[in-house]
Amino acid sequence: MKQSQKSPTKKQIVAKLTRYDSEAFLRDDTYTGNDLGATCTNEGTAFCVWSPLADAVQVCLYTENTAASHTAAVPDVRIPLQKSSHGTWYLKMEEPLHGTHYTYLVTMDGKTQETTDPYARACSANGIRSVVVDLSKTNPEGWENDHGPSLAKPTDAILYELHIRDLSMDSSSGILQKGRFLGLAETGTHNKAGLFTGLDHIKELGVTHVHLLPCFDYASVDELCPDFNWGYDPANYNIPEGSYSSDPNDATVRIREMKTMVQALHAAGLGVIMDVVYNHTSTADSHFNRLVPYYYYRMNPDGSFSDGSACGNETATERPMVRSFLVDSTAYWAQEYHVDGFRFDLMGLHDIGTMKAIRARLDEINPQLLMYGEGWTGGTCPLPETMRATKQNISLLPGIAAFNDNLRDAIKGSVFNEKEKGFVTGRKNLCEDIRFGICGCAPHPQIHLENVRSAAAFWALSPAQCVNYVSAHDNLTLWDKLACSFSTGTKSLRIRMNKLAAAIYMTAQGIPFFQAGEEFLRSKPAADGTGFDENSYRSPDSVNALKWDTLTKHYAVYEYYRGLIALRKAHPAFRMDCAKDIAAHLSFLANVPENTVGFLLHGHAGGDVLEEICVLLNPNRVAVPFDIPDAVWEIYADGERCGITPHGIVRGKNAMVAAVSCLILGH
Ligand code: CA
Question: Would you call 345 a catalytic residue per the annotation?
């Protein structure tokens, strides 16, 4: 595409920003219609694009798929759009142009630039052109009957964070469609030992939702010769990523294949969460900026792009047309692709009003749609702190959850210091932080905030706002973190620490979340042989891909995770969704041994069949005795085993808890 010849001056930029924020612009140039993009049916095709400052807009139509050599390509026709209401340009054509490639030529400030359409629903390989699509032609068979699992409350969810490529790239996966949407739709796959891999493994594990790292169209991977990238560099928000399709050159294939993947996950009883990255675009020279310069971005007073994402720019979600873009985009994925929720990258860069507007729109579609995000920013952001959708402000956003970094760091130590230990690795004075996390960071009468090291306030209104975890794509895997922070320990001891870590966040009030492979001690040794890769966003598949033969090696750990998940699903006591219920039904045991935590879920908490559940956490390197209420207790979990069927009895009011382990009892 043509580059702009001369950069605008600071004065010109400021003049535009002043205009965007003027009353006249807000009144006359904010478009509220729902027909932006190219809409194609058998009756014809309509183009509608928002570019209020343009002097002229033409659509370029390319009937041949020449995108691969686009620099030499010339459109077959250029047709002017007519200026329409509220800053839009419009063209209606009689022909159904399904499959036709298009771009816009925008004339503004004396120059003309070509751009793709930010509202496009399909594109050519690598997003070089937008493509007209009749979406009714993209549905897999049976799509009209497809729906996700029902979720009575957010705390019933158990989230499994997965990168599409990671799942299948390693030969041990046994998956044929390697690195593709369809790889996640394959069933009947197994590793060398005959253990389930891929979709069947996830189903057997028992999680409720698969949370997918970015699978909208991102920029960094050549779709025609793909390699690994996490994908946090958005190109086209409303289009699936082409490198995950079997044919990036055919614009409809990626759409149909992503839908097929969603359908397969739903058929397995699993929900699908999309990781969405609306906080920045891969480049500031984006379709947004070519259509409405600087409108979509937060700018510094000197005319440069603000960089709260630490990726070169940040979107101005507080502006009405950016807000409505996010609202419409999430609604589109929920309705057209049947996804079951969203994880917002750097949600702290989004303004509270926008997040509320998204929640309200998703509630109209299905109130069960999950919303959660990173309650922080990536860098300095000009949006006032009181307006940001951060963890600190999450109580202003009912129905939206934030990642609980307090519990994460208390359990395993800081993610910013690989050697720092946490509760499970033997660091002392973290019990109150653990207790704080166990309550879902919502108010509880037994928590003394002055003793919580990592938080000054109860930030969650309810545990439904709290995502509990110890591993994600960012930072070291849990197993690697244990290796770095407890390098002198034996492997068997680190396995006990790992199990204890999992037992804490799986029995904590809130929404549990973990990185794919944590259940079989996933490791990412650095490609250069030096330590571990804690930022593998563009590391090779050899680092990132799940190694399914390690599942065989660590099968006992996997069984333990399965047991914890089954136990959580069987017992609503772990899944209360209201802080008041937790205050009434969760009590911490007094007089516990030093450096331990014990709690009781009592009074058939959450409607549980068990009258009482007792969870005892001992990170100490020796067994310790706990005083517990006098009863005949059945053992659901200890340091070795966990499941819904008890495997032993503890009688009376004393329980010994083995070194570095948890004991979960019930009666
Ligand atoms: Ca792409």
Answer: yes
Q: Which residue has the tokens 């037994």?
A: 446
**Interstrand relation of 341-344 and 271-276 (parallel, antiparallel or unpaired):** parallel
- Decide: helix, strand or coil at residue 434: helix
Round to whole Å and give the CA distance between 195 and 364: 42
Q: What is each CA distance from 363 to 5, 14, 358, 521, in whole angstroms?
A: 45, 37, 8, 37
Find the 315 Cα to ligand 1 centroid distance in Å.
Answer: 20
Give backbone dihedrals phi and psi of 201, rounded to 5 degrees, phi first: -65, -45
Q: Which residue has the tokens 């749609």?
A: 369
Nearest to 173 by CA among 206, 196, 202, 204: 196
Q: Quick one: tokens of 17?
A: 């920003």
Catalytic residue (one of 186, 374, 405, 577): 374
Q: Is the pTM of this model over 0.90?
A: yes
Q: Give pLDDT < 70 ranges for the chain.
A: 1-6, 64-73
Closest CA to 130 of 156, 101, 167, 161: 101
Direct distance between the N- and C-terminal alpha carbons of the chain, in angstroms, rounded to an integer: 69
**DSSP E strands: which ranges in 300-412?**
341-344, 370-373, 401-403
- Residue 647 Cα, ligand 1 centroid: separation in angstroms? 50
> What residues have CB less than 8 Å from 656, skipping those under 6 apart?
623, 624, 625, 626
Separation CA 242–CA 125 (nearest Å)? 7
DSSP one-letter code for 184: G
Other Cβ atoms within 10 Å of 194 Cβ, number? 8
pLDDT confidence of residue 454: 94
**In one letter, which amino acid is 224?**
L
Note whether 663 and 655 are within 8 A (CB): yes
Residue 8: the pLDDT is 86
Distance 258 CA to ligand 1 centre (A): 14
Can you list the positions of beta strands (E) in 500-583? 511-515
Determine the Cα–Cα distance for residues 552 and 548; give it in Å rounded to an integer: 7
> Are 464 and 155 spatial neighbours (Cβ–Cβ below 8 Å)?
yes
For 429: left if phi > 0, alpha if psi spans -120 to 50, otherwise beta; the answer is: left
For residue 610, give the nearest of 600, 621, 598 by alpha carbon. 600
Query: Ligand 1 centre and the CA of 95: distance in Å?
Result: 28
* pLDDT tens, position by position, 240-255: 999 999 999 999 999 9
Question: Cα(531)–Cα(483) distance, rounded to whole angstroms?
Answer: 10
Q: How far apart are CA 266 and CA 339, in angstroms?
A: 9
Helix (H, G, I), strand (E, B) or coil at 551: helix
Measure the CA–CA gap between 482 and 412, rounded to whole angstroms. 7
Q: Which two tokens stand for residue 461?
A: 């209104």
Residue the block writes with tokens 């969603």: 262
- 274's CB contacts (< 8 A; 6+ apart) are 212, 215, 216, 333, 339, 341, 342, 343
Q: How far is the CA of 226 from the centre of ligand 1 (A)?
A: 9
Taking the C-alpha atoms of residue 394 and residue 510, their distance in angstroms, rounded to an integer, is 14
Pairing of strands 401-403, 370-373: parallel
Ligand 1 centroid distance, CA of 525 (Å): 27
Single-letter amino acid, residue 470: V
Q: Are the CB atoms for 597 and 438 separated by under 8 Å?
A: yes
pLDDT value of residue 218: 98
Alpha helices in 414-458 (DSSP H): 431-438
Cα(186) to centroid(ligand 1), Å: 23
Q: Of residues 345, 433, 518, 533, which has the active-site annotation? A: 345
- Dist. CA 543 → ligand 1 center (Å): 21
d(C-alpha 165, C-alpha 221), whole Å: 12
Residue among 519, 588, 503 at smallest CA distance from 557: 519
